[in-house]
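We close this part of the discussion by returning to an individual protein. The amino acid sequence and the backbone structure tokens for this protein are reproduced below:
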Amino acid sequence: MKTRTWTALLALVLAPTTATGQEVSQRIAAIGSGAVRFTYPARSGVEICDDGIRMGEHRIRWRSDDWNREPERCREGPVEVEVKVREGEVRDIDVVLKSSDRTPDATDLGAISPEDATEYFLDLARGNGAHRGAEDALFPAVLADVPEIWRDLLDLAQDRGAVEDVRTSALFWVGQEAAAVVTEELAGMALAEDEDQDIRDAAVFALSQRPDHESVPVLMDVARTAPHPDTRRAAMFWLAQSEDERVYAFFEEILVRRGGA
């Protein structure tokens, strides 16, 4: 019996350790000042390249001004992130692209689950434990292999207690990620009279990122009914980028109405 007990304890001691989202937050805060590194599985379609990150059609954080140049030495996940802290507060978040980017003396927490990584980053984005750069926490959260992250992003975008830059960034990613069910919520934010104009503009942009069959009718409605002229102009601008035939008829309607007036 004792032999089995000691064997089990030894197995626990020797087993690779992983950190949960809450443990990540606690362990990073406990560092005081320095760098902490960990990895987590990337979502499908994410490629980590020496020059930056490719996610579907998007090239993100590219280090070269030549956007036509093919990315170099790309591989699929995992995502490796370094978090820099000072006096227990997060000051910077970086996605590690290649081994030479690593901070030599960083504390390595090893691998964590994508759910725990997302929980940690979204908590930072809400301002918990981040001195500055809360907006930077959203990008590594989006890279994680977590289904329907747009739900959390939409909640964050609608949280008026969050930093405006964070809300705007969350709206951008909602536009890239969202299912059709969020179109109504985005339209509501675009039309809200008591929102800041930057938030309304971000909501209009997020709508423009949806497929034409979803976005065009809503953008036309915003262009017609938004109480703020800047919001109507933003909707008109993004409608002008569409090749949907309904847009031509809409512009003709607007021009004829103006000419008649």
Summary: The beta strands are 34-40, 46-48, 53-55, 58-60, 75-76, 79-86, 89-95, 107-111.
